[in-house]
Write a structure and sequence with these properties.
single chain; 633 residues; alpha/beta
Length: 633
């Protein structure tokens, strides 16, 4: 049980307390007269002796409240006590409507708003914040022409020196009785709360479920030992953190449903590689939400195929973000070109700056973006990608910057904006503001929210070309141009192309129970094909090829026929290239396409290796190595 201490400035107040306690069962464990200059020291002494509530008055009460964290019950002059003082003051002044000044600390007095009308006086208050200000308060009252001053010792002395009538601020037992009653009620409430908290702590400590308590803002206030084990962090590390930082899939819409609408919610989460089923229930107090309780139950990890099926083949979570699962080691990189691309991407993961991924459709732009996210300091945050192409300016604004847009859903994580050059000028400005100043502008450009996320973007042409064409603003160009990453197409990655074709054919055969094989001629045709759609095109073509193959052995005739049927324009390009490579059977072999691209870029940028490397999306060292390889001077 707690203890109550009474600390006052006058001996007579102790006598009042003694008289009142004869009538009440409430116990005050310590009663002392203290000086104002030692009020805080004396209060700390009482706290050290076990006091959990302090009763005090005026400036002493204010100081104790300011410099300690213990509940303080203030002794406040009651309306009845002030009425007695005002009546005596009228008798002393003997005027029809005397002007009476009340000097002291505001927390000492009751509401005296209607005293003028009730008692036929003009009441003025002169409140001080510190004891040293009391003489100045009296001086102002005297200058205002008051007839009488009501106050403590300091005020009465100052009034006497100024030749103004005064009345000491004496109290009856009424205000002391009221303070003691409030202390008794407070002690009872604190004891009930302690008992309830102890019961709750015991329940949580021995629960087989993980439990998190949240406040009304979604911040963690407590976790039980089971939850510490699930998350892999202690309560000390978790306390005060936003729950969305710990569980990115617990989106803003879910928290709003619980903390604002007062509705429960359940979902599957994964914490520290532990799959759990979580139930979030609001804590309701007097018809308002005062926080939430999250209860987590461990579940068995589902097989990948089953999980994908139950989640609808990768549908978005309630927050709008897919769980980021891809890492650099999952990306096909048998070729030197892709190994260099992944190496640069892994370096970019160390930065917080935006990354721009340049590549044809079907290249691993998203996989690289996701891998950068998973290797960055934001790996525990959400990863979200949004398209820009084919959307109006308003649709872009709502999807990306709106009230429930991607920017707010990706808080603490990474936002990938696909085809950023398709953004309208207004939305490019919003993106510039987002990257440069970490603010999100919605419909009203004058209103914004502070956000914390990393931006990545995909483009189909180098940023320098897009700026030259007027498709991207200069501000956005210079913001984005630092970490640009060019993803090489499969036709420039023969090792990766060969592996992908073999893997796609094998995967389709296993899935459909087929036993087809490609002839050497068929493989040669596939290896020389341009594959403008890269991964997507290779996978869909192999699916069709295996499903419709009439023979176990698939030769180049079958492959060419299907390629011409599905992609007539690309097939013509491939045929022209083969004819050029043959060159009548006796010509000089054509220069590799990569060498041609390098020569063209060097010519375009007047031999500047720095500008050429930037346009090609590679480093200067890589450009120099390739120039030596192809004998380019």
């Amino acid at each position: 049980m707690g203890k109550t201490a009474l600390l006052v400035s006058r001996e007579e107040m102790l006598h009042q307390a003694h008289n009142i306690l004869q009538e009440k069962s409430f116990q005050i464990h310590e009663m002392r007269v203290i000086s104002t200059e030692h009020a805080v020291t004396e209060a700390r002494r009482s706290i050290a002796d076990g006091a959990s509530i302090i009763i005090a008055r005026g400036l002493q009460a204010s100081l104790i409240k300011q410099y300690t964290d213990i509940p303080v019950v203030e002794i406040v002059m009651t309306a009845q006590e002030m009425a007695l003082l005002v009546t005596r003051a009228k008798q002393i002044v003997s005027a029809d409507r005397p002007v009476i000044a009340v000097v002291g600390f505001e927390n000492m007095f009751c509401d005296m708003s209607y005293f003028d009308e009730l008692y036929g006086i003009e009441l003025r208050t002169y409140y001080a914040r510190r004891g040293a200000e009391l003489p100045e308060a009296v001086r102002r009252a005297v200058e205002d022409g008051v007839d009488l001053v009501i106050g403590g010792d300091t005020a009465v002395t100052a009034a006497g020196k100024a030749g103004v009538a005064s009345l000491f601020l004496s109290t009856t037992e009424d205000s002391m009785r009221q303070a003691i009653s409030m202390a008794a009620s407070l002690e009872y409430a604190m004891n009930v709360e302690k008992k309830t908290a102890a019961q709750m702590e015991t329940l949580l400590d021995y629960s087989f479920s993980g439990v998190i308590r949240l406040d009304g803002a979604g911040l963690v206030t407590a976790v039980n030992p089971m939850m510490e084990d699930i998350i892999g962090k202690s309560q000390k590390e978790l306390k005060g953190l936003p729950v969305r930082m710990l569980a990115p899939l617990m989106g803003e819409d879910i928290l709003n449903r619980v903390l604002k609408d007062g509705k429960d919610y359940s979902l599957f989460l994964e914490w520290n590689h532990t799959p759990v089923f979580a139930v979030i229930a609001p804590v309701l107090y007097e018809n308002r939400v005062d926080g939430a309780i999250i209860t987590c139950h461990r579940t068995r990890r589902m097989a990948a195929d089953t999980k994908a099926k139950e989640e609808g083949g990768g549908r978005r979570s309630p927050s709008g973000a897919l769980p980021p699962l891809v890492r650099f080691e999952d990306i096909l990189q048998h070729s030197e070109a892709m190994q260099e691309c992944v190496r640069m991407a892994s370096l970019y993961a160390l930065s917080q700056r935006p990354v721009v991924l340049l590549g044809e459709p079907g290249t691993e732009k998203r996989m690289l973006a996701e891998s950068i996210h998973n290797s960055s300091s934001r790996r525990n945050g959400p990863f979200l990608d949004v398209p820009c192409e084919g959307l109006s300016g308003e649709e872009q604004r709502n999807m990306i910057f709106g009230e429930r847009g991607a920017v707010l859903q990706a808080q603490g994580g990474t936002l990938l904006i696909r085809d950023v050059e398709e953004l309208t000028a207004a939305n490019q400005y919003r993106l510039y503001q987002l990257i440069r100043f970490k603010v999100c502008h919605g419909t009203d450009i004058a209103r914004f929210r502070k956000v914390d996320l990393r931006v990545m973007a995909t483009v189909q042409k180098p940023l320098s070309c897009l700026m030259a064409e007027g498709r991207i603003s200069q501000d956005l160009y210079y913001l984005l141009s630092g970490l640009e990453l060019s993803v090489p197409p499969f036709r420039e990655r023969r090792e990766d192309l060969e592996w992908k074709i073999s893997d796609a054919v094998r995967d389709c055969c296993e899935r459909y129970g087929r036993y087809h094989v490609l002839t050497a001629g068929a493989k040669a045709v596939l290896m020389d094909y341009p594959w403008r759609g890269n991964l997507f095109q290779i996978e869909s073509f192999c699916e069709r090829l295996i499903l419709t193959a009439g023979k176990r052995s698939i030769d180049e005739i079958a492959v060419r026929g299907l390629l011409e049927e599905l992609y007539p324009e690309q097939s013509k390009e491939a045929a022209d290239r083969e004819a050029e490579a043959g060159n009548g059977g006796g010509g000089v072999p054509p220069e590799p396409r990569e060498a041609v691209r390098i020569r063209q870029a060097l010519a375009e940028w007047s031999g500047s290796r720095e500008r050429t490397a930037e346009a090609l999306g590679i480093s200067k060292a890589t450009l120099w190595r390739k120039m030596k390889k192809y004998g380019i001077r």
